[in-house]
Structure formats: C-alpha cells, structure tokens
Amino acid sequence: MERLFKLKQHGTTIGKEFSAGLISYITVVYIIIVNATILAVAGIPMEAGIIATILSSFFGCLIIGLYSNTPILLIPGMGINAMFTYTIVQSGGFTWQEALAMVFVSGLIFAVIAFTPLAKVITTSIPNSLKEAITIGIGILLILIGFDNAGIITNSDHTLLAIGDLSSPTAVITLIGLVITIILFIKNVPGNLLLSILITSLLSIWFGGGDFEGITLSMPAFHEYFGVFGQLSWAHAGNLVFWLTSISLAMVLVFENIGLIHGHSNMLNRPESSKKSLEATAVSALASGLFGSSPTVASVETAAGITAGGRTGLTSMVTGFLFLVSILFIPVIKIIPASAVSPILILIGVLMLQNIVHIKMDDLTESFPALLIIVLIPLTYSIADGMAIGFILYPLMKLLMGKGKEIHPALYLIAILFISNFVIQYVF
Fold first, then answer.
1. Helices 118-125 & 240-268, crossing angle to 10 degrees?
2. Confidence band of 276 (pLDDT split at 50, 70, 90)
3. How crowded is the C-beta side of 428, counted as CA atoms within 13 Å?
4. Taking the model in full, what pTM does it have?
C-alpha cells in the first residue's frame, strides 16, 4: 500500500483513506439509481442502466486511483446524462446506441486533448478568476442540491425557489444533522463526516424515515445488460450533425473536467496532479460508451472525500470497489436517507465558497464574468452552461475595454467553441 499510494508522503493512513472512501461512496451512491433512470428515458433498460452505471463508476474510480493517485471520483455526470438523453436522443432523434457511439467519439477527442500539449494550452489560457469561479459555483450548486434533497427549498411558480415544508421530518432531521456535522467538523473529531452520516441516519430511522420493506440481496439481470454492453451504432456516422454533436459533447467534457479537477487539485494542494487526473478522466469517459452509460466526470462530491481526509488514490479505489459490491445491495442503498447526505453536501459547498477572496473584485473585466459563472452554475443546474457564459463574456469584455492583449489566443477559440455549442443545442 505504501509503495503504491505513498501514504506517508501525503500525510495520510490506510484508515483515513478507507473512511474517506466510504464517505465518498455514501455521497455519490445516489448516481446509481438517478443515472439509470435518466438512461431508461433514452431507451436503455433500467436493470442494464444500473449495471452500466456501476461498472462505469468502478472503472473510473479504479483507473484514476491507480494512474493519478488522487482521491477524485469518476462517476456518470449529472447534466451530461441529461444531454445524452434529452438533447441527443429525444431532441436529436438519435438512438441510444448512436448516442453511445457519440460518447465514445467525444471520449477520444477528450483523450487526444488530455494526452497532448493541448491540455496545457487550454489550462494556461483560462484566467485564474474563471477557474476560481468554477470552484465557487460548484460549491453553491452543492449547497443547492443539499437543501433541495432535504426539501428545505423547493421550486415555486412565483419566485423560482422558495422555502419548503420545514416541519417535515426530512427537513427537521437535515437541519439537526447540519448542526451536528458543523460541530463535529469544527472540533475536528476523527471520522467526523462519517460519524455525522451515521448519527443522522439513526435519527432518521428512529423517526420513521427508513423503509425496510422489500429489502433483499439479488443479482441484477446481466442477460439484459449484455444487450447494452458495447452496442455502439455507427449508422449515422456519415451525418454531419452526428459529428457536430460529438464535438459539442467533447467540449462539455473537457471544460467541465478541467474546472472540476482544478478545484479538487487545489483542495489537495497538488496542482501537479491535474495532468494525470485529466488523462485518467478522458480514458474513463471513453470507456463509458462501451459500458453503456453516459460519460463519467470528476464528481463534485469528491470534495467530501478530500475534506474527510482522503489524499491518495486509495480513497477512490475504495469507493470504486464499494460501487462494484453494490450490485448486490441496490435495495439496501436506498435506506440511506437524504437527510444524512444533505448536511455533508451543504458543509462542503460552504467550504468551497472561501475561494471568492482570490477574485479581483476591483476589476470588473475580471470579476463580472467570474460572478456570472458563480451565479449561473447553480441557477442553470449545469456546470457546463454556467462556464460557457463566463468564458464567452470574459474575452468580449476585455476586447471592448481595450485589454485584448491580456487574453491568451486559445481563450478566443474556447469562446467560439462555446458559442458553437449553444448554436448546435438550440438551432440544430
């Protein structure tokens, strides 16, 4: 273990890594059911979608853990899975088999960028203010997800968002759990996040929040999955829209993951690890098409594992193997209540907001695009769309203010690509 993960060098232990891996798993395990449900809308059978999600997550966590030795989690991305189902299949008229081929192509494009100097060119061309804004925007998104899952905030016809039913058991237990989580974290109690999840879960079960009916251990329908694995279709590969859509998907993958990995690497104080992390992420995204899933991305919930003490690839590998074992425990996974996970997401989101001090507020050409990214990532519920607006506006504002020389040439190309992505989405 020591030779493979260099635990002492990174100031961690096997116990800390296993605990962080377990916490990471608990915060992301929701993706199994959620992603499979979204894939089912595209036509992929539910059981097959569950297995595809599990195997994609297992492979992603395994490869990034071994290759980059970071605790980053690779799971099917929320937002990108919606793009797969609702944009490519439903709106675009492609079959899910053709959509899987596009996932493979976009993964190849991503890999070409990640394994060549293009990755460095793109990364260095992005201003620090925009990089920090992505991290902060993701933090607010985590807070929003946490409060939404708990029912503390809800959608409203009149005000977009509104306070939910604070008297509901889930909301009450979440608020109690949040207080417990903050206290344990401030006091730096060993295993604080895991302890918080256990306490809050017990409270939820005590007040009748656990549903134990129909819990059995069973194997999913693998025969159904074999009809999805490797079922890429190239029937419309001669269609220009097929390739434009694949490029659009690749753009989202590249820029979303650059932002996410930058944020996670900063949390680890290991910016040098971002290159290998990006390369592993590209390979995992490519493999997702073969496994039968929408692309994997560096999960925002990685921050929970890092905050819990995860420092090496052992954390992500523990999470990956727990995903694999969960094939037998899908009904049991459903017991973990939202009220136990939500306080963790809220705390991590708040901690990520601290990066706002690194944005130059006295220069509107720097701060305004950054602040728009911060606001639009949670409001659009899309990391990619929030990023796009800021990346388009930044060079535009610099040019209008006569500061065009401050812009890296690659950033102009990135802005044009984001504009093209919007055109593909809303015109074609």
1. 70
2. very high
3. 19
4. 0.77
What per-residue confidence (pLDDT) applies to 190? 72
Nearest in space to 66 (alpha carbons), one of 6, 114, 111: 6
Contacts of 33 (CB under 8 A, 6+ apart): 50, 330, 333, 334
Tell how strand 296-298 and strand 160-163 pair up.
Answer: unpaired
Please name the amino acid found at residue 49: G
State the average pLDDT over residues 198-224.
72
| Predicted pLDDT of residue 142 | 80
Phi, psi of 161 (to 5 degrees): -125, 150
Residues 6 or more apart whose CB falls under 8 angstroms from that of 196 comprise 177, 180, 181, 184, 185, 340, 343, 344
Average pLDDT, the chain: 87
CA distance 356 to 52: 38
Q: Are 352 and 263 in contact (CB under 8 A)?
A: yes
CA distances from 376 to 126, 195, 261, 284, 389 (A): 18, 33, 19, 27, 8
pLDDT of res. 157: 80
Residue 188 and residue 145: Cα distance in Å, rounded?
25
Q: Report percent pLDDT > 90 for the chain.
A: 43
